Amino acid sequence: MLGTNIKRVSRQGFISFWRNGIVSFVSVFVTTVTLFIIGTVIVGNAFLTASLAELQDKVDVNVYFTIAAPEGEILDLKTRIASLPEVKSVEYTSREQALQNFTERNKGNTLVLQSLQELGSNPLGAVLNIKAKDPSQYAGIVTYLEKQNQSTLSGDAAIIDNINYSQNQLVIERLSKMIAGLEKLGAFVSLILILMAALVTFNTIRLAIYNSRQEIGVMRLVGAGNSYIRGPFIVEGLMYGGVAALLAIILLYPATLWVGQTTSSFFGGIDLTKYYIANFLQIFVLLIVSGTVLGMLSSFVAVRRYLKV
Questions:
Q1: Helical spans, DSSP H, in 91-225
Q2: In sequence order, what DSSP letters do the residues of 19-74 get, joined into one string?
Q3: In terms of CB atoms within 10 Å, which end of the chain has fewer, N or C?
Q4: What is the Rg, in whole angstroms, of the alpha carbon atoms belonging to the chain?
Q5: What pLDDT was estimated at residue 154?
Q6: H-helix or E-strand containing 76?
Q7: Is the pLDDT assigned to residue 153 strictly greater than 50?
Q8: CA-wise closest residue to 205 among 248, 228, 239
Q9: The pTM is what?
Q10: For 202-232, how does the pLDDT look when each residue is reduced to its tens digit (9 = 90+)?
Q11: Residue 125: DSSP 8-state
């Protein structure tokens, strides 16, 4: 008996979904847009996170030494820095290698090369390139370097000429703030669209109740139970959310395909199409659950409010 009632309620909800063609279309359309935006926010957040991680990996500290700094003292400092627990790697570039790299970068600039020849000597100092395990640890490393520079002297002069940390720190902080702002904006837009979709579904079910008022009256007269009368409207709302979720999932694939080549060549090198395919099950479940819950809750509220049985 229970199975029969469920079938009848589901069939009646399905019939009502197709009978209210225009209003059903509007409800499905708005809910589809909402779920599509939610899916876009999910995929976009993965792209932003990968971009930030890639940029963080590129951030480093370059320590430039004076021309007169003895190589032995530089290598000794390199060993001490490498032993720090927060340091990921330290790369040493000698004065000769620094000059060779500089010449290679400017091989098309005859003015710069002529200037080097006129100097008659190597004007560049050695360099240490330091990478930390976490970007937040660079401040501590720089503080350590500054203290070492004060205590490690060659004659009367410090061996470190410059540390380029402040420029990189500004870039990473600005990018982090930008990504956090975009995530908040995406969440805010999604919330607004969810409220709009819930309101449209609510009014759609309200209209369906009004259009079915004669049928509801007949069912009351013949003694139909509350769940039997309310059930088709709940099923109708569930269909709004379910169909919209399926459409949003289908539309997300060509959307990620369209921007996938562009994002793969950007900071993080993440291909959104591959990410979408790899995480399809999680995204599918999330959107289906979001859509059906949104539709059912909106329908339930509308039925409780306007269908007194």
A1: 95-105, 110-119, 138-151, 165-211, 213-221
A2: HTHHHHHHHHHHHHHHHHHHHHHHHHHHHHHHHHHHHHHH--EEEEEPTT--HHHH
A3: N
A4: 33
A5: 45
A6: helix 71-82
A7: no
A8: 239
A9: 0.63
A10: 776 666 666 655 565 655 655 555 666 666 7
A11: P
User: What are the sequence ranges of the domains in the chain?
Assistant: 2-55+172-306, 67-158
Give the pair of three-digit tokens for residue 208.
Answer: 């369906």
Whole-angstrom Cα distance, residue 176 to residue 182? 10
Return the CATH number of the domain spanning residue range 67-158.
Answer: 3.30.70.3040
Query: Range with the lowest mean pLDDT among 69-73, 144-148, 304-308?
Result: 304-308
Report residue 151 as tokens: 């205590």
Q: Is 196 exposed, middle or buried (0-12, 13-18, 19+ CB in 10 A)?
A: middle
Confidence of residue 139 (pLDDT cuts 50, 70, 90): confident
Positive/negative CA dihedral, 42, 43, 45, 46: positive
Q: Does the pLDDT value for residue 186 go beyond 60?
A: yes
